[in-house]
Write a structure and sequence with these properties.
Helix content is 24%, strand content 24%. By secondary structure, it is an alpha/beta fold.
């Protein structure tokens, strides 16, 4: 049976078209891995803007920090954070993956705090540039590597980002679209029941008429994932903790 982490990384990588311009922010190792996998398989002509400051770095293995200086190796040029924002604002960035501590059916994410801003019960990493970049990039994609009712909530405690467009959401159990009109379940992982998804979803959702099953990566695609992540960091980040 394919591990959920391999399927999730491939699900992320499959979102990238050949020739697309993609970018990563801080704390995004899964996004770094997915971009590297896409480049080695179906999207060799993608352009990668890495937040560490490099244009098209040569990613040969995944590191724990997306700010690791190894991601400067083999770069075609340098890019600053202001450069990244400028390119996004001008419509030059096709896809960015965004995380969320909380997400609701309207597509609002919380990266700020649990409770309230006035009296937070827990502090999250923060918004950084997500509130702007999510609106400016052509295809924002939200990733939830461990789907739980604490992550997919009826209403976020603090609105950190939102978007008037519908947004694709990838989880270890399936794929949703969220935004105006609410959440729709579009695809499920193999061997995952609708009851399991409902039990681990805190917001209401409808089911697409043509509900799909997320495909497993082929053996050669799994080999690429394993070669780029020999330390198995993906297994620590995706799915229920072992």
């Amino acid at each position: 049976m394919i591990h959920a982490a391999d399927r999730f990384v491939w699900q992320m990588a499959a979102q990238i078209d050949d020739g697309a311009v993609v970018a990563t922010g801080v704390a995004s190792p899964l996004a770094v891995l997915a971009i590297a996998v896409a480049r080695e398989t179906h999207a060799p002509r993608l352009t990668y803007l890495a937040c560490v400051g490099s244009l098209n770095p040569r990613v040969t293995r995944l590191h724990r920090s997306s700010e690791d200086l190894a991601y400067l190796d083999g770069r075609a040029g340098e890019i600053t954070i202001p450069d990244l924002f400028d390119h996004a604002r001008r419509g030059r960035v096709d896809l960015i993956y965004f995380g969320a501590a909380q997400l609701d059916a309207l597509g609002r994410t919380n990266l700020t705090a649990a409770g309230t801003l006035a009296a937070p019960t827990a502090k999250f990493p923060g918004v950084v540039g997500a509130c702007s970049l999510r609106r400016w990039c052509k295809r924002p994609i939200i990733i939830v590597p461990r789907q739980t009712r604490r992550a997919l909530v009826p209403s976020v405690a603090v609105r950190s980002t939102e978007d008037d467009r519908r947004t694709r959401v990838l989880t270890d159990l399936g794929q949703f679209s969220v935004g105006p009109g609410g959440a729709v379940l579009e695809a499920v992982a193999p061997h995952t029941s609708l009851d399991t998804i409902a039990a681990r979803t805190g917001f209401a959702f409808t089911i697409a008429d043509a509900l799909e099953v997320i495909p497993d990566p082929a053996p050669d695609e799994r080999d690429v994932i394993a070669a780029l992540d020999p330390d198995g960091l993906r297994f620590e980040l995706v799915g229920a903790p072992s």
